Amino acid sequence: MKLMDSDHCIAILRGRLNLQGKIDSDEVLAVTTVSIGELTHGAYKSASPVKNLSRLDVLLATVKILQFTTQSAQIFGKLKAMLEKKGQLLSDLDLQIASIALEHGVPLLTHNRKHFDRIPNLIIEDLMI
Predict the structure, then answer these.
(1) Which residues contact 57 (CB under 8 A, 6 or more apart)?
(2) How far apart are CA 54 and CA 50, in angstroms?
(3) What whole-number distance in Å separates Cα of residue 26 and Cα of residue 35?
(4) Is the dihedral of CA 77, 105, 63, 126 positive or negative?
């Protein structure tokens, strides 16, 4: 299983990322409830909310949905404290997504290495390069 960050979902929804040949055909892709919130927000802000919400529904029907659980919340708290002590701020949403990836022991598919590289033990893959 691989967990997609919002940027990979957006690239797929806009037709800018084709996963064929980039992942195994039997690979399970997942999205967090946190990313669903970000994507839904973006769809409602767009010029074509109905069309974009429909596209999002199609994507979500093909992936596994991972929740922000008690365990991921505990990982989040530990990571946030560690980063604050180092003076390295990261958005709570990105930290929640990373915490879910760490809880499940899965790589995060993201183009946003600048943010996520600071998180220890997080495996990052970028299919957009």
Answers:
(1) none
(2) 6
(3) 23
(4) positive
What pairing do the DSSP bridges indicate for beta strands 29-32 and 64-66?
A: parallel
- Residues 17 and 11: beta-carbon distance below 8 Å: yes
With a CB cutoff of 8 Å and minimum separation 6, the contacts of 3 are 29, 30, 31, 32, 66, 97, 100, 101, 104, 106, 107, 108, 109
DSSP H/E element including 82: helix 70-85
Q: What is the pLDDT of residues 75-110, one digit of tens each?
A: 999 999 999 999 998 899 999 999 999 999 999 999
The confidence band for 25, taking pLDDT boundaries of 50, 70 and 90, is confident
The first and second tokens of residue 40, run together, are 């839904």
In the chain, where the domains are located? 2-125
Please tell me the CATH superfamily of domain 2-125, with its number.
Answer: 5'-nuclease (3.40.50.1010)
For helices 49-60 and 33-45, what crossing angle results, to 10°?
Answer: 160
Give tens-digit pLDDT for 63-80.
Answer: 999 999 999 999 999 999
